[in-house]
Specification:
It holds the Pfam family Ribosomal_L16. 36% of the residues lie in helices and 16% in strands. It has 233 residues and is an alpha+beta fold.
Length: 233
């Protein structure tokens, strides 16, 4: 691309930046060297200029390390509200995969950063137990936008800020299981996760809940039997 020998030039970086600016100005690209190119030529000036041309792959930076969907149908979404279950739905309220779980006591909108922090704490706590697993029952797939401070009304929707999810009351957020994990360890891991969340939560034991359900069923059956006897008499 260039026919320059950098050893003969007195100030090779200055000459290179000028030649590179002339080339890129034709294509309306970058007219200055990146820090990466500068360090490369500072350490090794024998490299050809075509090797260290900045590309969009290196110039793009990814700051977000939280959970995010791979693709969405629309770039922005309506604000919406946290759903309130008035029809008696219990979907997602019980443990399905693990042995212990963390349940929210109020409806809330959780951001991807909050869920990532809680998920990381749980993994860090139970990683010493071989075969242990974590399941996340919700996922942040709703884009949330925001406008700057002291911005006037109107002029379109704000820019994208983060992803979030709407969690109804009594829904399971995280589940832990596998590896014969002890109740004390699971309880401590989920307690640390709840400290990262802006909502009241409770620890759920699958076996204890099943026992409680069986006891309630027995009570209901006894009431039905007694009502039948009274009705017959």
């Amino acid at each position: 691309m260039f026919s320059l020998s950098f050893k003969k030039l007195k100030f090779p970086l200055i000459h290179y930046s000028a030649a590179y600016a002339k080339l890129t100005s034709k294509f309306s690209l970058y007219s200055l060297l990146t820090k990466r190119n500068f360090l490369l030529f500072k350490n090794n000036q024998n490299l050809s200029p075509s090797i260290s041309l900045p590309t969009t792959f290196f110039l793009q930076r990814r700051y977000r390390a939280e959970f995010a969907p791979r693709r969405t149908k629309y770039r922005k979404a309506h604000k919406g509200r946290v759903p309130v279950r008035i029809g008696g739905s219990t979907k997602g309220n019980t443990i399905a995969f693990g042995s212990f779980g963390l349940r929210v006591k109020d409806g809330v909108r959780l951001s991807s950063a909050q869920l990532t922090a809680a998920h990381t704490v749980i993994k860090r706590k139970i990683k010493v137990i071989k075969g242990s697993q974590v399941w996340m029952r919700v996922f942040p797939d709703i884009p949330v936008t925001s406008k700057g401070n002291e911005t006037r009304m109107g002029k379109g929707k704000g820019s994208f800020e983060y992803y979030a999810c709407r969690v109804p009351m009594n829904k399971i957020l995280f589940e832990i299981g596998g590896g014969n994990i002890r109740k004390e360890v699971a309880k401590e891991a989920l307690r640390l996760a709840s400290d990262r969340l802006p909502v009241k939560t409770e620890f759920v034991d699958k076996d204890a809940e099943l026992k409680q359900l069986k006891q309630e069923q027995k009570k209901i059956e006894k009431k039905i039997e007694t009502n039948k006897i009274i009705h017959i008499q």
